[in-house]
From TrEMBL:
Highest taxon in the source lineage: Bacteria
Residues in Acetyl-CoA hydrolase/transferase N-terminal domain copies: 13-224
Species annotation: Marinobacterium sediminicola
Family: Belongs to the acetyl-CoA hydrolase/transferase family.
NCBIfam families noted in UniProt: YgfH_subfam (TIGR03458)
Gene3D superfamilies on file: 4-hydroxybutyrate coenzyme like domains, Acetyl-CoA hydrolase/transferase C-terminal domain, Glutaconate Coenzyme A-transferase
A UniProt-annotated Pfam family: AcetylCoA_hyd_C
Alphabetical list of InterPro entries matching this protein: AcetylCoA_hyd_C, AcetylCoA_hyd_C_sf, ActCoA_hydro, ActCoA_hydro_N, NagB/RpiA_transferase-like, Succinate_CoA_transferase
Domain Acetyl-CoA hydrolase/transferase C-terminal per the UniProt entry, residue ranges: 325-471
Name of the protein described by the UniProt record: Succinyl-CoA:acetate CoA-transferase
């Protein structure tokens, strides 16, 4: 049952209504800024009611009713899934991982703008995205003065609330009331030329406010909900992910021995996905104590590291927990409260902060080429998987950028190491280390030709290694440029072969 004790502001308690009534207030063509980041803190009721309304309207009218959906990052079936199913989204930004959205993006019925997550807020402020009509934000409570207790993610909520003409709030009493006080909302951002240094020098620093400021006069509806965040469980660590974690641990230990990393490492960032989560489990089994995380999401692996003392503090913008992880967090929130700080995504992922702190960035890849360029978003160069998310924010600006993947995909039909990537998200200049279950390629200080040897020999699967060596050798002796040798007519032939035969 909804818990009205979460709505303490007298003015806003007058605006309580049903999700269906609130959905009526969203007009066709609106730019709607929604809360939500990796399956946490997204609105749970109004998007579904809006999808129903769109379904009826579109059955009756010839002019389709669609809206533009801006969020923090990915959400869940109750938001992206239901709206995409009724073809209710004209344009989506800045990240998604929903299967229905993905198929609409790839069949051309939905436009998608894939942005670095730290940059979305400044783009919204700069104005070229257009005016935000409505912010639809899940919160854990409304205080007497109208300020908001944020939910299990912050994402772009501060910006949406400031930018939108009108605001709809979903107050979710299922979110743990003890989330109050875990957030740190920084009100010192500005557009250039008025920016000032952000005075954060340790992941544990608090530089802002615990609550989101919200002008009550902009709030047009308050909807009560009581549904949980929904995230898929992580796949258990398998042999491949354990080997990848093992190579990374060995690398860290060597860097510590050589005096190039402190024994507490540097603040770690770990991306979404099964492999990065498994790497965290590997780290937890290692010899480390008192590490810190300056990252985007808190996965199950990070809770375990906090519990064991491997990690002492984690700064992020959202949780990304499996159902078991949510249970663990809820039952032990008193333990976690002072060890986790949630910030808006333009601060959690800020390039200035990632560079100052010297973040160790660990993210997944779809494919890497023999010279170290990485594709983390596109299948065979054309089909969107999820999006770049925060990987570029951290990889480009961190101290060490590590990319991880199994060496093959689809039962061995696809090599993750290819002659030339079919799409580039992270260039050879940003990628420092590549790891597969086969081994680790440390690309720091190496020329392109040296990198090719390191990547092919250490990371490629033995089934594909001879063909990669053959490509490289022929490119090297082709009489063309020797700096980054390529056979242009053949560079993407592996992808073409896969499209034609189902096997690279
Ligand atoms: N070609 C085709 N499909 C491929 C592939 C390739 N080269 N490499 C991986 N895949 C497929 C896998 O088969 C799997 O598909 P399935 O779910 O149908 O089996 C899927 O991609 C995920 O691969 P998996 O090996 O399980 O890795 P993951 O869960 O760690 O995800 C990324 C890898 C790259 C998709 C993921 O890390 C991502 O979206 N990254 C971009 C965003 C990001 O890095 N954010 C980090 C900041 S939080």
């Amino acid at each position: 049952m909804p818990d009205t004790s979460r709505i303490l502001c007298p003015v806003l308690s007058q605006r309580i209504m049903s999700a269906e009534e609130a959905a009526e207030l969203i007009p066709a063509g609106a730019n709607v800024g929604m809360s939500g980041f990796t399956g946490a803190g997204y609105p749970k009721a109004v998007p579904g009611a809006l999808a129903e309304r769109i379904r009826h309207l579109n059955a009756e009218n010839t002019k389709p009713f669609r809206i533009n959906v801006w969020t923090g990052a990915s959400t869940a079936p109750e938001l992206d899934g239901v709206l995409a199913e009724v073809d209710g989204i004209e344009m989506r930004l800045p990240f998604q991982s929903d299967p229905i959205c993905r198929s609409r993006i790839n069949n051309g019925t939905m436009d998608y703008v894939d942005y670095h997550l730290s940059e979305v807020s400044q783009y919204a402020w700069s104005g070229f995205l257009g005016k935000m009509d409505i912010a639809l934000i899940e919160v854990a409570g409304i205080r007497e003065d109208g300020s908001l207790i944020p939910s299990s993610s912050i994402g772009n909520n501060k910006t949406w609330i400031e930018q939108a003409d009108k605001i709809i709030l979903e107050v979710n009493s299922r979110q743990n009331a003890k989330l109050e006080g875990m957030h740190d909302i920084y009100y010192g951002t500005a557009l250039p030329p008025n920016r000032k240094p952000i005075m954060l020098t340790d992941p544990a620093d608090r530089i802002g406010e615990q609550y989101l400021a919200c002008p009550p006069e902009k709030v047009i509806a308050v909807v009560e909900t009581a549904a949980p965040d929904r995230n898929s469980p992580f796949k258990p660590s398998d042999d491949v992910s354990k080997k990848i974690a093992g190579h990374i641990l060995e690398f860290f230990n060597r860097e510590i021995e050589l005096g190039r990393l402190p024994k507490e490492l540097l603040p770690i960032q770990s991306g979404v996905g099964n492999i990065p989560n498994a790497v965290l489990e590997g780290l937890d089994a290692g010899p480390y104590k008192g590490l810190t995380a300056f990252t985007e999401v808190i996965q199950d692996g990070m809770l375990k590291m906090l519990k064991s003392g491997t990690l002492k503090v984690a700064s992020a913008t959202a949780f990304s927990l499996s159902p078991d992880g949510i249970k663990e967090f809820d039952e032990n929130i008193d333990f976690y409260r002072d060890k986790i700080i949630l910030r808006q995504q333009d601060i959690s992922n800020h390039p200035e902060l990632a560079r100052r702190l010297g973040v160790i960035a660990m993210n997944g890849l779809i494919e890497a080429d023999i010279y170290g360029n990485v594709n983390s978003t596109h299948i065979m160069g054309t089909r969107m998987m999820n999006g770049i998310g925060g990987s570029g924010d951290f990889a480009r600006n961190g101290y060490l950028s590590i990319f991880v993947s199994p060496s093959t995909a689809k039962g061995g039909a696809i090599s993750a190491i290819v002659p030339m990537v079919s799409h580039v998200d992270h260039t050879e200049h940003d990628v420092k280390i590549i790891v597969t279950e086969q081994g680790l390629a440390d690309l720091r200080g190496l020329s392109p030709r040296q990198r090719a040897h390191e990547i092919i020999n250490n990371c490629a699967h033995p089934d594909f290694r001879p063909a990669l060596i053959d490509y490289y050798e022929r490119a090297l002796h082709s009489g063309r440029g020797m700096h980054t040798p390529h056979l242009l007519e053949e560079a993407l032939s592996w992808h073409q072969r896969y499209e034609e035969t189902g096997q690279m």
